[in-house]
Write a structure and sequence with these properties.
Elements (H helix, E strand, L loop, with lengths): L10 E4 L10 E3 L8 E4 L9 E5 L6 E4 L17 H10 L2 E5 L6 E4 L9 E3 L18 E4 L21 E4 L6 E4 L14 H4 L1 E6 L6 E4 L11 E5 L6 E4 L9 E5 L4 H6 L10 E4 L10 E4 L5 H7 L8 E4 L21
Parallel strand pairs: 1-3, 2-4, 3-5, 4-6, 5-7, 6-8, 7-9, 9-11, 10-12, 11-13, 12-14, 13-15, 14-16, 15-17, 16-18, 18-19
Protein backbone atom coordinates (compact mmCIF):
# COMPACT_ATOMS: atom_id res chain seq x y z
CA UNK A 1 0.00 0.00 0.00
CA UNK A 2 1.58 3.30 -1.14
CA UNK A 3 0.28 5.32 1.81
CA UNK A 4 1.98 3.02 4.30
CA UNK A 5 5.38 2.75 2.58
CA UNK A 6 8.45 3.21 4.75
CA UNK A 7 9.91 6.68 4.10
CA UNK A 8 13.43 5.20 4.12
CA UNK A 9 13.04 3.16 0.91
CA UNK A 10 15.76 3.54 -1.74
CA UNK A 11 13.74 2.47 -4.75
CA UNK A 12 10.09 3.12 -5.63
CA UNK A 13 8.63 0.88 -8.34
CA UNK A 14 4.93 1.28 -9.12
CA UNK A 15 3.72 -1.62 -11.26
CA UNK A 16 1.40 -1.38 -14.26
CA UNK A 17 -2.25 -0.49 -13.69
CA UNK A 18 -1.73 0.74 -10.14
CA UNK A 19 -2.76 3.88 -8.23
CA UNK A 20 -5.39 4.73 -10.84
CA UNK A 21 -8.00 6.16 -8.46
CA UNK A 22 -8.13 8.30 -5.37
CA UNK A 23 -4.61 9.76 -5.51
CA UNK A 24 -4.51 13.36 -6.80
CA UNK A 25 -1.00 14.44 -5.75
CA UNK A 26 2.03 12.17 -5.83
CA UNK A 27 4.79 13.81 -3.78
CA UNK A 28 8.04 11.86 -3.85
CA UNK A 29 9.76 14.15 -1.36
CA UNK A 30 8.49 11.99 1.51
CA UNK A 31 11.21 9.48 0.52
CA UNK A 32 14.52 11.31 1.19
CA UNK A 33 16.70 8.23 0.56
CA UNK A 34 15.16 7.42 -2.84
CA UNK A 35 17.64 6.57 -5.62
CA UNK A 36 15.33 5.31 -8.36
CA UNK A 37 11.75 6.12 -9.34
CA UNK A 38 10.08 3.78 -11.83
CA UNK A 39 6.41 3.87 -12.75
CA UNK A 40 5.22 1.25 -15.23
CA UNK A 41 2.54 1.60 -17.89
CA UNK A 42 -1.06 2.71 -17.33
CA UNK A 43 -0.52 3.79 -13.74
CA UNK A 44 -1.24 6.94 -11.68
CA UNK A 45 -3.95 7.94 -14.14
CA UNK A 46 -5.86 9.94 -11.51
CA UNK A 47 -2.79 11.91 -10.39
CA UNK A 48 -2.95 15.61 -11.31
CA UNK A 49 0.30 16.78 -9.68
CA UNK A 50 3.62 14.91 -9.65
CA UNK A 51 6.26 16.46 -7.39
CA UNK A 52 9.85 15.26 -7.57
CA UNK A 53 11.88 17.78 -5.62
CA UNK A 54 14.55 18.10 -2.93
CA UNK A 55 15.77 14.53 -3.46
CA UNK A 56 19.49 14.45 -2.66
CA UNK A 57 20.02 10.83 -3.78
CA UNK A 58 17.57 10.35 -6.67
CA UNK A 59 19.42 9.33 -9.85
CA UNK A 60 16.77 8.18 -12.35
CA UNK A 61 13.13 8.79 -13.23
CA UNK A 62 11.37 6.46 -15.64
CA UNK A 63 7.65 6.63 -16.46
CA UNK A 64 5.99 3.93 -18.59
CA UNK A 65 3.54 4.23 -21.45
CA UNK A 66 0.18 5.94 -20.92
CA UNK A 67 0.69 6.73 -17.24
CA UNK A 68 -0.39 10.01 -15.63
CA UNK A 69 -3.19 10.63 -18.13
CA UNK A 70 -6.90 10.10 -18.67
CA UNK A 71 -6.36 10.08 -22.44
CA UNK A 72 -5.08 7.32 -24.70
CA UNK A 73 -3.48 7.03 -28.12
CA UNK A 74 -6.40 5.42 -29.94
CA UNK A 75 -9.96 6.72 -29.50
CA UNK A 76 -9.42 9.32 -26.77
CA UNK A 77 -6.41 11.33 -27.94
CA UNK A 78 -5.78 14.73 -26.30
CA UNK A 79 -6.38 16.73 -29.49
CA UNK A 80 -10.18 16.39 -29.44
CA UNK A 81 -12.14 19.60 -28.76
CA UNK A 82 -13.64 18.10 -25.61
CA UNK A 83 -10.28 17.03 -24.23
CA UNK A 84 -8.66 20.35 -25.12
CA UNK A 85 -11.12 22.24 -22.92
CA UNK A 86 -10.76 19.81 -20.02
CA UNK A 87 -6.96 19.73 -20.18
CA UNK A 88 -6.62 23.50 -20.17
CA UNK A 89 -8.95 23.79 -17.20
CA UNK A 90 -7.26 21.04 -15.16
CA UNK A 91 -3.71 22.44 -15.50
CA UNK A 92 -2.04 19.23 -14.43
CA UNK A 93 1.67 19.55 -13.76
CA UNK A 94 4.91 17.69 -13.22
CA UNK A 95 7.59 19.45 -11.18
CA UNK A 96 11.21 18.29 -11.12
CA UNK A 97 13.60 20.51 -9.20
CA UNK A 98 16.46 20.59 -6.74
CA UNK A 99 17.64 17.03 -7.37
CA UNK A 100 21.41 17.31 -7.36
CA UNK A 101 22.38 13.83 -8.65
CA UNK A 102 19.44 13.15 -10.98
CA UNK A 103 21.01 12.12 -14.30
CA UNK A 104 18.17 10.66 -16.37
CA UNK A 105 14.52 11.44 -17.10
CA UNK A 106 12.81 8.94 -19.39
CA UNK A 107 9.12 9.34 -20.21
CA UNK A 108 7.63 6.73 -22.54
CA UNK A 109 5.01 7.50 -25.18
CA UNK A 110 1.51 8.41 -24.12
CA UNK A 111 2.50 9.39 -20.58
CA UNK A 112 1.45 12.87 -19.34
CA UNK A 113 -0.55 13.46 -22.52
CA UNK A 114 -3.15 15.53 -20.63
CA UNK A 115 -0.58 17.42 -18.53
CA UNK A 116 -0.17 21.02 -19.66
CA UNK A 117 2.74 22.00 -17.43
CA UNK A 118 6.16 20.43 -16.99
CA UNK A 119 8.36 22.50 -14.71
CA UNK A 120 12.11 22.36 -15.08
CA UNK A 121 12.83 26.07 -14.90
CA UNK A 122 12.34 28.84 -12.38
CA UNK A 123 9.24 30.60 -13.73
CA UNK A 124 5.52 29.93 -13.64
CA UNK A 125 5.24 30.58 -17.37
CA UNK A 126 7.74 27.92 -18.40
CA UNK A 127 6.44 24.37 -18.68
CA UNK A 128 9.76 22.67 -18.18
CA UNK A 129 11.09 23.82 -14.90
CA UNK A 130 14.71 23.05 -14.01
CA UNK A 131 16.45 24.37 -10.94
CA UNK A 132 19.42 22.66 -9.35
CA UNK A 133 19.64 19.75 -11.79
CA UNK A 134 23.41 19.87 -12.33
CA UNK A 135 23.77 16.16 -13.15
CA UNK A 136 20.95 15.68 -15.68
CA UNK A 137 22.46 14.05 -18.80
CA UNK A 138 19.46 12.86 -20.76
CA UNK A 139 15.90 14.02 -21.29
CA UNK A 140 13.98 11.44 -23.31
CA UNK A 141 10.26 12.01 -23.88
CA UNK A 142 8.61 9.41 -26.09
CA UNK A 143 9.91 8.02 -29.37
CA UNK A 144 11.05 9.47 -32.65
CA UNK A 145 9.80 7.24 -35.45
CA UNK A 146 8.46 7.44 -38.98
CA UNK A 147 4.99 6.18 -38.13
CA UNK A 148 2.16 8.68 -38.39
CA UNK A 149 -0.62 6.75 -36.66
CA UNK A 150 -1.99 7.98 -33.34
CA UNK A 151 -0.87 4.79 -31.65
CA UNK A 152 2.73 5.49 -32.61
CA UNK A 153 2.60 9.05 -31.34
CA UNK A 154 4.09 10.25 -28.06
CA UNK A 155 1.52 12.98 -27.26
CA UNK A 156 3.20 13.95 -23.98
CA UNK A 157 2.51 17.50 -22.72
CA UNK A 158 0.46 18.11 -25.83
CA UNK A 159 -0.84 21.52 -24.72
CA UNK A 160 2.20 22.77 -22.80
CA UNK A 161 3.03 26.41 -23.41
CA UNK A 162 6.71 25.90 -24.12
CA UNK A 163 9.76 23.88 -23.31
CA UNK A 164 12.62 25.82 -21.76
CA UNK A 165 15.93 24.13 -21.15
CA UNK A 166 18.37 26.41 -19.40
CA UNK A 167 21.40 26.11 -17.13
CA UNK A 168 21.61 22.33 -17.30
CA UNK A 169 25.39 21.94 -17.38
CA UNK A 170 25.52 18.16 -17.86
CA UNK A 171 22.71 17.72 -20.42
CA UNK A 172 23.95 15.79 -23.47
CA UNK A 173 20.91 14.48 -25.33
CA UNK A 174 17.32 15.59 -25.79
CA UNK A 175 14.71 13.46 -27.55
CA UNK A 176 11.12 14.69 -27.97
CA UNK A 177 8.84 12.18 -29.68
CA UNK A 178 6.04 12.48 -32.23
CA UNK A 179 3.17 14.85 -31.33
CA UNK A 180 4.75 15.90 -28.01
CA UNK A 181 4.41 19.59 -27.05
CA UNK A 182 2.33 19.88 -30.21
CA UNK A 183 -0.04 22.74 -29.41
CA UNK A 184 0.89 26.16 -28.09
CA UNK A 185 -1.27 26.89 -25.05
CA UNK A 186 -1.33 29.61 -22.45
CA UNK A 187 -2.61 32.98 -21.38
CA UNK A 188 0.48 34.53 -19.80
CA UNK A 189 0.75 38.29 -20.28
CA UNK A 190 4.51 38.13 -20.77
CA UNK A 191 4.34 38.09 -24.57
CA UNK A 192 8.10 37.85 -25.02
CA UNK A 193 8.05 34.53 -23.13
CA UNK A 194 4.67 33.39 -24.31
CA UNK A 195 5.93 33.20 -27.87
CA UNK A 196 8.81 30.87 -27.13
CA UNK A 197 8.34 27.20 -27.93
CA UNK A 198 11.75 25.75 -27.27
CA UNK A 199 14.57 27.74 -25.78
CA UNK A 200 17.96 26.17 -25.19
CA UNK A 201 20.72 28.20 -23.59
CA UNK A 202 23.81 27.66 -21.51
CA UNK A 203 23.92 23.93 -22.23
CA UNK A 204 27.68 23.43 -22.55
CA UNK A 205 27.53 19.65 -23.11
CA UNK A 206 24.41 19.33 -25.25
CA UNK A 207 25.43 17.16 -28.22
CA UNK A 208 22.22 15.93 -29.87
CA UNK A 209 18.59 17.04 -30.32
CA UNK A 210 16.01 14.77 -31.95
CA UNK A 211 12.45 15.96 -32.58
CA UNK A 212 9.75 13.60 -33.87
CA UNK A 213 7.07 14.44 -36.41
CA UNK A 214 4.48 17.00 -35.26
CA UNK A 215 6.46 17.83 -32.12
CA UNK A 216 6.22 21.59 -31.47
CA UNK A 217 3.98 21.96 -34.51
CA UNK A 218 2.54 24.96 -32.78
CA UNK A 219 0.33 27.90 -33.55
CA UNK A 220 1.25 31.15 -35.26
CA UNK A 221 3.21 33.59 -33.13
CA UNK A 222 5.53 31.01 -31.53
CA UNK A 223 9.29 31.09 -31.86
CA UNK A 224 12.43 28.98 -31.52
CA UNK A 225 15.61 30.09 -29.77
CA UNK A 226 18.89 28.21 -29.74
CA UNK A 227 21.43 30.02 -27.58
CA UNK A 228 24.92 29.10 -26.42
CA UNK A 229 25.05 25.38 -27.28
CA UNK A 230 28.78 25.12 -27.86
CA UNK A 231 29.03 21.35 -28.41
CA UNK A 232 25.77 20.81 -30.26
CA UNK A 233 26.68 18.47 -33.12
CA UNK A 234 23.48 16.91 -34.44
CA UNK A 235 19.89 18.06 -34.89
CA UNK A 236 17.31 15.70 -36.43
CA UNK A 237 13.84 17.03 -37.21
CA UNK A 238 10.80 15.06 -38.41
CA UNK A 239 7.86 16.28 -40.47
CA UNK A 240 5.69 19.25 -39.44
CA UNK A 241 7.99 20.41 -36.65
CA UNK A 242 7.86 24.15 -35.85
CA UNK A 243 5.54 24.46 -38.84
CA UNK A 244 4.04 27.76 -37.67
CA UNK A 245 7.16 29.35 -36.22
CA UNK A 246 7.85 32.69 -37.96
CA UNK A 247 11.12 33.49 -36.17
CA UNK A 248 14.19 31.45 -35.24
CA UNK A 249 17.03 32.92 -33.18
CA UNK A 250 20.40 31.17 -33.33
CA UNK A 251 23.02 33.09 -31.43
CA UNK A 252 25.02 33.79 -28.34
CA UNK A 253 23.12 36.13 -26.11
CA UNK A 254 24.53 37.22 -22.77
CA UNK A 255 25.82 40.16 -20.81
CA UNK A 256 29.13 41.94 -21.44
CA UNK A 257 30.46 40.48 -18.18
CA UNK A 258 29.77 36.94 -19.36
CA UNK A 259 31.28 37.60 -22.78
CA UNK A 260 34.52 38.68 -21.13
CA UNK A 261 34.91 35.25 -19.54
CA UNK A 262 33.53 32.98 -22.30
CA UNK A 263 34.88 33.00 -25.84
CA UNK A 264 33.16 29.93 -27.26
CA UNK A 265 29.53 30.90 -26.95
CA UNK A 266 27.11 30.41 -29.82
CA UNK A 267 26.50 27.26 -31.88
CA UNK A 268 29.77 26.83 -33.77
CA UNK A 269 30.13 23.05 -34.03
CA UNK A 270 26.91 21.72 -35.55
CA UNK A 271 27.86 19.15 -38.21
CA UNK A 272 24.50 17.57 -39.10
CA UNK A 273 21.08 19.20 -39.46
CA UNK A 274 18.50 16.79 -40.89
CA UNK A 275 14.99 17.89 -41.87
CA UNK A 276 12.59 15.16 -42.97
CA UNK A 277 10.97 17.44 -45.57
CA UNK A 278 9.91 21.04 -46.22
CA UNK A 279 6.90 20.86 -43.90
CA UNK A 280 9.06 21.73 -40.90
CA UNK A 281 9.69 25.47 -40.48
CA UNK A 282 7.24 25.89 -43.37
CA UNK A 283 6.13 29.38 -42.30
CA UNK A 284 9.56 30.62 -41.26
CA UNK A 285 9.89 34.34 -42.05
CA UNK A 286 12.93 35.55 -40.13
CA UNK A 287 16.23 34.11 -38.93
CA UNK A 288 18.03 36.08 -36.25
CA UNK A 289 21.66 35.05 -36.64
CA UNK A 290 24.42 35.89 -34.21
CA UNK A 291 28.12 35.26 -34.17
CA UNK A 292 29.66 31.79 -34.02
CA UNK A 293 26.73 30.02 -35.65
CA UNK A 294 27.42 26.93 -37.74
CA UNK A 295 26.83 27.40 -41.47
CA UNK A 296 25.26 23.93 -41.52
CA UNK A 297 22.54 25.10 -39.13
CA UNK A 298 22.02 28.44 -40.86
CA UNK A 299 21.91 26.97 -44.37
CA UNK A 300 19.42 24.28 -43.38
CA UNK A 301 17.03 26.90 -42.06
CA UNK A 302 17.68 29.38 -44.85
CA UNK A 303 15.86 27.34 -47.49
CA UNK A 304 12.75 28.49 -49.27
CA UNK A 305 9.60 26.82 -48.02
CA UNK A 306 6.49 28.97 -48.08
CA UNK A 307 8.80 31.90 -48.76
CA UNK A 308 12.48 32.73 -48.46
CA UNK A 309 13.23 33.79 -44.86
CA UNK A 310 15.02 37.05 -44.26
CA UNK A 311 18.07 37.31 -41.99
CA UNK A 312 18.57 39.77 -39.15
CA UNK A 313 22.10 39.97 -37.80
CA UNK A 314 22.90 40.09 -34.09
CA UNK A 315 26.03 41.19 -32.27
CA UNK A 316 27.74 39.25 -29.47
CA UNK A 317 25.17 40.41 -26.94
CA UNK A 318 22.11 39.57 -29.01
CA UNK A 319 21.42 43.11 -30.18
CA UNK A 320 20.26 43.75 -33.75
CA UNK A 321 23.04 45.26 -35.88
CA UNK A 322 22.02 48.52 -37.58
CA UNK A 323 23.88 51.08 -39.65
CA UNK A 324 24.38 54.76 -38.86
CA UNK A 325 20.88 55.57 -40.05
CA UNK A 326 19.21 52.97 -37.88
CA UNK A 327 18.49 50.62 -40.77
CA UNK A 328 19.23 46.90 -40.61
CA UNK A 329 22.84 46.29 -41.52
CA UNK A 330 24.22 43.42 -43.54
CA UNK A 331 25.89 40.63 -41.59
CA UNK A 332 29.61 40.95 -40.97
CA UNK A 333 31.82 37.98 -41.74
CA UNK A 334 31.00 35.54 -38.95
Amino acid sequence: DYINLDSRIRGLHILSNCLNSGLVTLDISRFPSLKTLQIDSNSCRSVEVLLVQDEEKLQTIKVGEDSFTQCDREKNTPDSKENESIIKQMKKKMVVKNNSVLNSIVIEKGAFSDYSRLFLKMAEIAPFYGIDLPSLKELLIGEVNEGESDREGTWSFYYAKQLTLSSLPSLEIVIIGNHAFNRFYGTTSFACERRVWLMTQDLPRLFSIQLGSHAFEGLSGSALKLLNCELLNTVEVGTDVFSFVPTVTIASRCSERVMQHHRGLGIPNLQTMTLADASSFYNLETIERGKQVSDVLFNALNQRRRSKPSTICLDSYGNVIVDGNGALASCPEY
